[in-house]
Amino acid sequence: MAHITYFPQGTCSKHMEIEVEDGIVKNVVVLGGCSGNLQGICSLVRDMPVDQVISKLQGIRCGYKNTSCPDQLAQALKQAQGK
What we know:
This protein has helices spanning 35-45, 50-57, 69-81; strands spanning 2-6, 13-21, 24-32.
């Protein structure tokens, strides 16, 4: 199982811990940010293929920001894949 530690940029969340096994997201924990929304996102992406998570979350913006917590999760997964 791969364990990814990621420090988001440009968002309210400050720290992401992600576990991936055989290309499947097994667990995500996000510190900081909008707790309820992030708990929901973490629950929804559990047991989802990494490529599908990236596809669905990449490019989402938060208000006036160029990124969002979901987008940063996609960026963390892309970085872990070497993309």
